[in-house]
Amino acid sequence: MRVLSIETSCDETAAAIVEWDGQSATVPVNTVSSQASLHAKWGGVVPQLAAREHIRNIVPVIEETLERGNFTQDDLDAIAVTAGPGLMPALVVGVSAAKTLALAWQKPLIGIQHLEGHIYANLLRPDTELRFPLIALVVSGGHTQLVLMKEDFQYEILGETQDDAAGEAYDKVAKLLGLPYPGGPQIDKRADAFQKSHSEESIKEFTDKFPRPMLTSDNFDFSFSGLKTAVLYSLKKETKETMQDEEFISAMCHAFQEATVDVLVGKTKKALKKLSPKTFVIAGGVSANTRLRSRLEKMITKEFPETQFLTPDFAYSLDNAAMIGIAAALRLERMTADEKKELLKNSVSLNPDANLPLA
Ligand code: KG4
Ligand code: ZN
Prior knowledge:
Layout: E1 2-7, E2 12-20, E3 25-34, H1 36-40, H2 47-68, E4 78-84, H3 88-105, E5 109-113, H4 114-120, E6 134-139, E7 144-149, E8 156-160, H5 166-176, H6 183-196, H7 204-207, H8 225-236, H9 240-243, H10 246-275, E9 279-283, H11 290-303, E10 308-310, H12 322-333, H13 337-346
Zinc ion binds next to helix 4.
């Protein structure tokens, strides 16, 4: 099965070709056109600007994807698109493009939930299999959730953030520190360099500087807004000189990251202990974080050796269309011929939903 997939939920215009043979996936073409530098000027994603850029880029990105793989409409079995959640003006562009192509080419069109795509991105590594029950730690710019899956496409939210998402906290704290958008990779890089160039003992005051919100609460929920406020209040006490001191900024990156990762790892551990899943995956943009990956790996190898730990390839950690294509291929595989015919008939009625839940 070969799927053309499209993703425009936030600030990347993306298209991909995904092939699924019933056992493993290949991605002959993955195109991502990022608008990050445009939004950096505003310190975050501006929805109307994102929509304008998607409109400008969507046709060239799809054309390039087909051309690079030497594919025509005749080579495609279906079209997939992110239906939500995301920024409404941005989602509309991808969905409209996908509907137009599905109608013109008479292909089944399938809408995919963005976070489902992030979870299934873990299948884009060679020789991987999702064994159930599975727990996913979904950490993106808009979501932070622990999700239990007893089988494919069945989701039970164990807990989620009560305020900011982890990625959002990274971006907001980076802004407080004067670092450019998106802040996650900046903080990751600085914290990593800081930690590697100092002894554990000498940076302990920073490691322990901030609170670990809800770490010991008796549930699987998260909260990151208080942590961000703690960073803000702590910075207010600093002089202008200190705020321009690169070493100090890196120390604060480390301090914030340790608090965040402690909470994410701590809550994951609690969920693994209670539910003993066969697989644990991380999903969403923050899954690219090097410290989160290494701390989770260490904890799982040591304390839950029976659980297989999967991480998406770095190429598929951030927003991309290949993750939408693999989730679509698996959903299509489970459909009867009649259900596929329905998809073909209903393609015009697919509508984006900015708050589409995992279901
Ligand atoms: O999944 P994603 O690309 O878009 C959404 O669906 O939201 O996630 C974007 C988020 C941003 O908040 C970005 O700062 C964060 O992921 N992020 C990171 C890293 N790379 C991206 N956060 C921490 N460390 C990283 N290396
Ligand atoms: Zn995402």
